[in-house]
Every structure is written in C-alpha cells, then in structure tokens.
Design brief:
The protein has two domains: 130 residues, no CATH class; 153 residues, Immunoglobulin-like (Sandwich). It is 30% helix and 25% strand. It is built from nine helices and twelve strands. Strand 1 and strand 2 form a beta hairpin. The longest helix is centred in the first third of the chain and has 13 residues. The termini are far apart.
Length: 297
C-alpha cells in the first residue's frame, strides 16, 4: 500500500486534460483502481469502491477495512459502498470485518439497506447481505413485536410494539412520520423489497416530551400505521409503472406482485449531538417476521 500515493500521482498526471469527474474507473488497472478507492477525497473514489464490489478481489480487503474504520460514525456513501464490496468479496476475513462494523448498535442500518437497492447490488447477494448483517437484534434493553391486522378497503394495519425490558425508565424516539420505513418486506422467493419515501416532512416544532416519551420498565410504546395496495403506480425513479405497491402515504413499498410476504420491523436510533435527555435509548432492535398475504380485490 506504500506505493499507492505514487500511483495516484501518476494517474492524475495522465488525466490533467480532463476533469476528475470524467475519469473512467472501468478502464483503470487493478492497482490504479485500489489507489483511487483508497483516497476518499478524490471525486472518483466512490465509483472505484463500487467497481471493487463488482471485481470481488480479496486484495482490496485491507483498503476497504480502512475505509470503514475512517468512516466510523459517518454517513458518507463510501462507508456503505465499502461494506457492500467486502460482502461481495466474501472471504472469511471480509465477513469478520463486516460483523465487527455492521453488527454495531450505532451502524446506520436504514441507510445501508437503502443503498443496497440504490446502487443496484446484485439481487441474490443483496438478499443475503441484508439477512446476515441487518436483521440481527442487538438490544437487551428493548424488545420489538410486530402485529398486523386487516383494515377497511383492503388495507393492512401494522403496529410496532416496543417494550422496555430494562430495570430503568428509558426515553424512546417516537416517530410521527415514515413509520412504513421501519418495515422490511420479503417475498415468497426470498427477495427483500425496496421502499422509498414519497413525501418530505419537516418534524420541527414537535415537543421534546412528545418526541422522546418516557417508557417505564415493563411498559410499551406502540407505533401504528396503515397501508393499501395499489396497482400500476408510477414511481419517479423507474421508467415504467410498478405493477403493485403498498402505499403508506409517505412511504411506498414496491412489491411488484401479490402473494405472501414475511414482514420484519426494524427500529433503530443513533446518538445525536446535544441530546436533550441523558436516558434516550440508542441501538437496533428487530422483530420476528410476520407472514401476511397481499391480494388485490
């Protein structure tokens, strides 16, 4: 790795006539690709990381590990790209690194899942990536149960029940919007379903007590939301309408086909600067799956 700086200088010297944004990572030699990926200040570093994901060569493992270390507590895309690349390389060492970094209560599991879809990770690999490193319950203080009931007009009502299993009073974050984003659907074929946020909300103006209610030991915080299936829904990021979606109003799950699904609830909260209360719970808690059937009337 000591010669990477020299390689970078050589590469940059050959592309002075074009902007960094025009640098084609697909045409780089492997050592050049590693050098670009390692220097995350370069505009093409992220594209190089995704290219390493596709190549799947274990020589990239030390660099990808270092990217994860340097981006701990960060939401920069390089962190999540490096995780995907390590998973696709798939060696024992790569999986050990992933367990150390992704099975951490502070890891942004929501962003990690979202980017698995946004960056077109190969479907079967993405399914295993999500199952192995995102659906693990990491909490002993709080447990989560998911209940699903049928509502009117072919709707489904989803209720997340968070229980304080500790011996002290905790404050739990109580979201008012995007409750559908706390759910993860898996088809009968084993594929996880992408969801998108359809409306942008501003939660400013909420009271601290309403946002972080006190939950006594043994007591529950319940969060409920409802959704209805819709057919041939036009989604901004796709050229053709999606044949079937589950619409929560502010969150849309792109089911594609009707049938049976396993639904997981994933609730996580990360530390934020200048928290108002000292006893706000942070971590990741995952429910057991609930099997439901979504059919069109």
């Amino acid at each position: 790795m000591n010669n990477y700086f020299t390689i970078i200088l050589t590469i940059l010297a050959t592309v002075t006539s074009i902007s960094a944004g025009e640098l084609l990572v697909d045409s780089l030699k492997y050592d050049e690709l590693l050098a670009i990926a390692e220097n995350t200040t370069l505009p093409q570093s992220f594209k190089a990381i995704l290219r390493l994901r596709e190549v799947g060569d274990e020589r990239a493992v030390p660099i990808l590990k270092q990217i994860l270390i340097e981006h701990t507590n960060s939401t920069r895309i390089h962190r999540f790209g490096a995780a995907q690349a390590l998973f696709c390389i798939g060696t024992d060492k790569a999986h050990q690194i992933l367990r150390e970094h992704l099975l951490d209560a502070e890891y942004p599991v929501d962003l990690s899942i979202m980017y698995g879809f946004h960056w077109r990770m190969e479907e079967s690999k993405r399914d295993t990536f999500i199952a192995q490193h995102h659906l693990q319950n990491l909490s002993t203080d709080v447990s989560l149960k998911l209940e699903v009931k049928n509502g009117i007009f072919n709707s489904k009502i989803f209720t997340l029940i968070l229980r304080n299993d500790s011996e002290k009073t905790l404050r739990l974050y109580k979201p008012k919007v995007y409750l559908g984003a706390y759910l993860m659907f898996r088809s009968s074929l084993g594929h996880f379903i992408e969801h998108i946020k359809a409306i942008l909300y501003d939660e400013r103006g909420r009271t601290p007590e309403g946002t972080y209610p006190k939950i006594a030991p043994g007591k529950d915080l319940k969060l409920s939301c409802s959704a209805r299936p819709q057919t041939n829904r036009k989604i901004y990021k796709y050229p053709e309408p999606v044949s079937l979606v589950l619409d929560f109003g502010d969150t849309i799950h792109l089911l594609g086909n009707s049938g049976k699904f396993k639904v997981y609830a994933i609730y996580s909260y990360r530390k934020r600067p200048n928290e108002l209360y000292p006893n706000i719970w942070t971590g990741r808690v995952v429910s057991n799956p609930v099997e439901i059937e979504i059919l069109l009337e």
